[in-house]
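mind reviewing these tokens:
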Amino acid sequence: MDLDALYRDPHPTYAAARPAPGLTYVPELQAWLVSRYEDVREVLSRPEDFSSEGALRPDQLPRAAALTELVKGFGGRPTVLSRDGEEHRRLRRPLVRGLSPVRIAAAVPFITRRAEELIAAFAAAGHAEWMSAYARPLAADVIGHLMGLEEGDARPAVAAGNRAEDLLFQPMTDDEQAAAARDVVGLQHLLDGYARARRDEPRDDLTTEMVRGLAPGTEPLTTDQRHEIVANLQNLLLAGHLTTTALIGSAVHLLLRERAQWELLCARPELIPAAIEETARYEAPIQGFRRTLTRPLTFAGTGLEAGDTVFVSYGSAGRDGGAGFDITRPPGRHLGFGHGVHGCPGSQLAREELRITLETLIRELPGIRLESSEVVMAPTLIHRAPESLRLVW
């Protein structure tokens, strides 16, 4: 199997690994696959043994042309995803404050208005490509709103953030890498401008929380502080829309693929919270992250050495036991948003965006259906969502 095929459909690999004794080594990932629910939960509960350093190892390394551009920007510092212990707690605190239940509740009117506007923009056409017409723009607008970005900056910033993902995970020519790097540097300078502005004039937004948390005080930001703040703002921008985009795309795909589930949801909207959790369980928006062994140990019957890499698959854990997609399933635990100290701090925001999305769809477009049963998933294990989802009504 090549890497693209694994990324587009990892579930056969997961399904083969779960009943196998011990851990399964997956050459395409250059890692031991942790596939069973209890094993995934245990790894995530033991950060002292399974370090987050290298959680997002790139598939591609920027070459000389890209590096020439990247040195003109900011960032290049560790982010919350790849740190442990007190350093992780320091980087995570601003996110927890900025994504508090109170802040998310305050954003609900904005989310509702944007959801209604986006659906109204294509409702009369009778068809839409869901990911580009709704899922991506809604998630971009919402994270931009919470970060305090000007309306005209949010979507271009997210698009530039996606270029950073492309640069590290998609094969490109030297010229393509350089172009992507220029877009990333442009984003970094934009975020640096916002950070310095919030230092001078704090606001009630995530960018201000990041500046306060990572650079306490009132004096002008140092160069090192600016690099760290930009790196973590860039990470927030990417994570803040990818997870939600994936959840919204997968929910609509699964509900319409299992038509009876969509019709049941339309008849019983009180099942929307269950549909959200079932989507996160069955098609985890975050497929998983790598962890690095800090010491030799035996785990799940497999001997591992210090420095070995495991891929902790939230996506596989959700299907442990073989249960199909069913929104009437009694509530249960799942790892769709991770677990423990590295659990996704934006999970409640993603849930709210999907809740509002489903409520609006049921009210405005209950007759939607898939244009085709053939849906191709995006080639990535960072998140999991349809590459394209064409709907008609």
Summary: The chain has one domain: 3-392.
